[in-house]
Amino acid sequence: MPADRFLHTPLQLDRLPEPIFHQVRQMPANTVYLPHQHQWGEFVFSFSGVLEMKAEGLEFRVPPNFGLWHPPGCEHHGGNTHASLHCSLYIDAALAHERGMPDRTCALLINPMLQAILNHLRHHPPQSPYTVQESKLLDVVLDQLVASPATGSYLPNSSDGTLIKVLNYLKDDPANSQPLSAIAEYFGTTERTLARKARRDLGMPLSEWRQRLKVMRSIVLLQEGMSVESVALDLGYSTASAFIAMFRRLLNTTPDEYRKQQSTL
C-alpha cells in the first residue's frame, strides 16, 4: 500500500457500550477502509465530502444531505480521496430490527431537522455512559432515520455491458454535453434502448444520472477552492446560474452556502 495512504482501523468491540453509540471522525485524505463487518448496524453521515463505499456487490457514492446505512453483518469497505469529517451511529442489531431500519445497504435522505441534530452532536459528542437526555436525543435520531427515504446509491451503477460502458464514458468527462442520441449511436445502440436500461438498472432517467454525476464532481472542485463560475464552466454549463439551479435542486443548498458550511467544519 502506498505510503501516503492512511489505513483506518474499524471499531472493535465485543458489544456496544450504548444501544445507539455515536462517534465523530476526522479522516485525512486517501483514507482506506479495509473490508469489515459489525454485529450491529452502522449509519454514516458525512459533514464534509463524499462517502465512497462498497457493500453487497454495489458501489455507493453519497453526497452531503444524504447518509449511508449498513445493516448488521454487512461487509463493507471503501475510502475517501479528500479529507473528510463524518459521524457514525452504531445501532444495536435487535433495536435496528425492532424499529424497522432497512435490511440492505442504502443511502438515506436526511431532513433539515436531523441534519441539525447531527451537527449538534458533532459539536457536543456524548461520552459513555450517556445521560438520560443524550440517550433520548439519540433515540430521536433513530426515529428520524427510520422515517428517512431510502434511495439506494445516489449514483448507481449497472452490470449491463452497454450501459456500463456509457456510464464510464460519462464519468471520464462529466462536462460531456452530447445528446443521448449521439451517445447511443457511438455505442451502437438506440436512445430508446439506453433509456429503458437506465430506468431498469439506475431507477432514473440517464439525464438525471448525468446531473448527479456533475454535482458529485462539483463538490470535489468546490472543496479544492475553485470559484462557482469556474466550476460551472468546467462542468460544461454556459452560465453559473444554470449550475447553481442544478446544485440547489439536488442538494437543497447553493454552492456558496455549501462552501460556507465546509469552512465552519
Automatic annotation (TrEMBL):
Gene3D superfamilies: Homeodomain-like, Jelly Rolls. GO terms for molecular function: DNA-binding transcription factor activity; sequence-specific DNA binding. Residues 164-261 form the HTH araC/xylS-type domain. Keywords: DNA-binding, Repressor, Transcription, Transcription regulation. CDD domains: cupin_NimR-like_N. PANTHER family: ARAC-FAMILY REGULATORY PROTEIN (PTHR11019:SF190), HTH-TYPE TRANSCRIPTIONAL REGULATOR NIMR (PTHR11019). This is AraC family transcriptional regulator. It comes from Neptunomonas marina. The lineage of its organism: Bacteria, Pseudomonadati, Pseudomonadota, Gammaproteobacteria, Oceanospirillales.
